[in-house]
Amino acid sequence: MSPRQMLWILALLLLLLAGWQFLRALWLGRASAPQSGPASAAMADEAGGEGDDGDGFDYAPQPRPAVSAPLAPEPAAPAADVFRAELEVSHLRRELEAQQALIALQRTEIEALRAEAAGLRQQLEEAMLAQPSTSPEYSEALRFAEQGYTAEEIAARCGITVAEAGLVLSLARTGGTRP
C-alpha cells in the first residue's frame, strides 16, 4: 500500500468520524429539546418560535435560564475561620514589619558604604596628586645628580647607562623635575 493510499484512507476515516460526531450532536439536541412541565411551556412562549423553522432543527437555540432555588442567605463564617484569618493577618503584619526593619538597616549600610567610597575616592585623588612627576626608576638617579655626582658615578650606582645618567644630570641642572 502506497503512502498516497494510506493518506486517502486516513482522510476518509476522519470524514466518517466528523459525520458521526455531527449526527450525535443532532441526536443529543433533539433528545434534550422536549421538556415537560410549566418551565418548558414558558420557554416556548418566550421564544415565540424564534430560531425554529419547524423541521425539528434549532439553528439558533435560545439560552435556557437555569432553574435555581430561591436565594438563601449565606451562613456566617464559623468562628474558627475568622480566628484563622485574623491569625494569618497578624503573622503577615509581623513579617511586613521585619522586612521594613531589614530595608531600613540595608539603607543605612548603603549610605555608610557610599560615604566610605567617597572617602576612598578622595584619598585616591590626593595620592595621584602627591605622586612624583618622575619615574621611580630614575628618582634615585635624580637625587644623586642633585647631590653633584657625575654621570659615570650615577650610572654605576643606579645600574643605568651613562647616556641615561647624562640625561638625568641635564634634567637636574635645568630644574625640569619640579612642576
TrEMBL record:
Composition bias type Acidic residues, residue spans: 47-56
Coiled coil: 96-130
Biased composition (Low complexity): 35-46
Record's keyword annotation contains Transferase: no
Origin superkingdom: Bacteria
Region of interest (Disordered), residue spans: 35-73
Listed Pfam families: DUF2802 (PF10975)
Record-given protein name: DUF2802 domain-containing protein
Organism, scientific name: Thauera linaloolentis (strain DSM 12138 / JCM 21573 / CCUG 41526 / CIP 105981 / IAM 15112 / NBRC 102519 / 47Lol)
